[in-house]
Structure formats: C-alpha cells, structure tokens
C-alpha cells in the first residue's frame, strides 16, 4: 500500500481556510456595517486572506500530483507538477504573512497615541516587510533558471545550496516570532493608562494581543525545517506545509477577532446578555433611600448624560445647544477614548480626534443606565460641562 499524507494536508488546509475566511467576513461586516469605518487594515487583511486561499489551493493541487507521497512512487511528470505547486506555495505564503502583519500593525496604530509606541509599531512593520521580501525573492530566485526548481528532468540548471534556504527560514521564523510577541506585548502599554476598570483592561489586552497566536505555528514548524534536506522532498515536507498553512490561518483569524467586539456587544444586546465589565451580570443597583430599587443598573464605560457640550476648535470654543445633539430627552451620548469599539469616522464627524472626559480634576470612564425613580423619592442632577480638544497624532 502506497503511503500518502496528502489527505492529512488537505484536511488541514480546508479547515484553516474555512476558519480564516469566516473571521475575515465577520471583520468586514463589523467594519463596514456596524462601525462604518472600513480601513486599510481591513483591506490588507482581505488581501492576506486571498493569498492564504492561493496557498491552500496550490497545496491541494499538489496533493493531486503527489505531495504527501514518496517520490519513488511517482512518475517524473507528476513530480514536476507537484514541485511546481510547492513553489507557488512559497510565493503565496510570503505575501499572505506580509499583508497579515501589516494589517495587524495598522490596526494597532488606530489605538496608539504615544509617539514611542507608534515608532515601535512602524519599526516592527518595516522589519516584517523587509524580511518577508528577502525570503520571497531568495525562494523565488533560488534556482537558475527559475523552472529548474520543479523540473530537474528535462533541463540543466543550478540552485543555491539548501543550507542557505534553511538558514534563511530559521532567521525569518525568529524575526517573525519577535515581531508577533512585540505586537502581543504592546497592547499592555496601550491600555495601561486608559480610564477603564482593571477587569476591562484584563479582557481587552488578550483581544488586542492575539497576534502572537501565529507564533505557535512558527515555533512548531521550526522543528521540521531541516526536512528541506531530505531527498524525498514531497513526503518529508508535509509537516512544513501544514504548519505554514496553520500560521497563516492563525494570524489572519487572530488579527480579525480583535476587531469583532462591536459584533459581540450587538449580539449580546439583542440576546439580553450583559456585557458588564465592572460588575456581575444582572446585579441590582443599590437601594434608593427609603425603598428598594425597581430597575437594574449596568456598568459599562464612557457613557454620560450631558446638558451642555463644548467643543474646542482651532478657531475658538463653540457651545452646542442640547437640541443640536438631540439632548432634550436626556438620551446618553457616547464619549470614549478607545478606538476599538467606536468608529473613527463617527468621532471625526463630531469633531473629536481623542475624547477626554473630566470633571473636578478627575476623569470618568463608566456609564450608568439610571434606574427608574420610585414615586415620592428625591433625585439630584448635576449639569456637567465637557471640554475636549481635537488633536492630531
């Protein structure tokens, strides 16, 4: 019986493409329909998905001709076609990872203010592109003529020593892991000084730092890189193909999941599930003086009721009447300083780049759905003036 690992590779490719495809579709829905701020990071992730689909398609096409089987069991024509598909997988992998890392970097730039942190992201993005392009061109041009990589039966040519490819693969993998963990650690500093509860920060950091998930596949693949030396290439390199496909899927999926929180909040609201970050779900509010509460209080963040708004423009300070914002019925206006959940476009339309809420020298970041006031009780309301500056970073 002929040994064949092709079905194993095909199953992995099919599963990984399905997962990454679903995550990108959901991302596009959130960015275009919910927050209405489809940006370059989303566009680049779509391109990364297309190259991932190309990788999986070429891998499955190679299986048809012999990828996953011993080369002694294959005809020369099948070996040529299988090796051609392997070469195309090289190309697709390089570009999928370049666009994926660029997308993650641009996403983090959306929520980064401090110049040092922005420079770190730019450096990581530049390093990712540089190493990705070096790996791409070396693997693309490793043989002369180029077609000698897959057709060593009908022509003569030469290729760079395989040790060079192995060394470059290790170098690329190490840099990739460093970049991934940089993207994973940076969100800790991004949310450290935000006006959020500790629990909210603890939930937000893993979401923003999911980029390091792809490094798991990179580390696993490094154990098989030496298989490039194996003369039985199509059989021996199946594990490299599996972990390369997994790396792309994890990077694309993790980078997309970080943008899906608005969808979760929308679904939770429709299902009546609390998205409470500051307390237990469904917990009653403290009793009114003299009687029990008749409604529930939910704590989220950055939602306030304002009677008067002030917006600072370059030309001076402009006061807005309540009617300008539909405030006659005291509907809450959302003011937040994180760009994860609110549309950058929405903020720009209201004249804000960074939103800062302060009163009495203190900043506030929680919201309260005010419970119904029982008859006969007394409530006190304070008018708050909110000032913000429109700044460009």
Automatic annotation (TrEMBL):
Bilayer-spanning residue ranges: 12-30, 42-65, 85-108, 120-142, 162-191, 203-224
UniProt KW keywords: Membrane, Transmembrane, Transmembrane helix
Domain Rhodopsin: 26-265
Cellular compartment(s): Membrane
Main location as per UniProt: membrane
InterPro entries cross-referenced by the UniProt entry: Rhodopsin_dom_fungi, SAT4-like
Cellular compartments per GO CC: membrane
Bilayer disposition of the protein: Multi-pass membrane protein
Stated family: Belongs to the SAT4 family.
Protein name: Rhodopsin domain-containing protein
Native species: Didymella exigua CBS 183.55
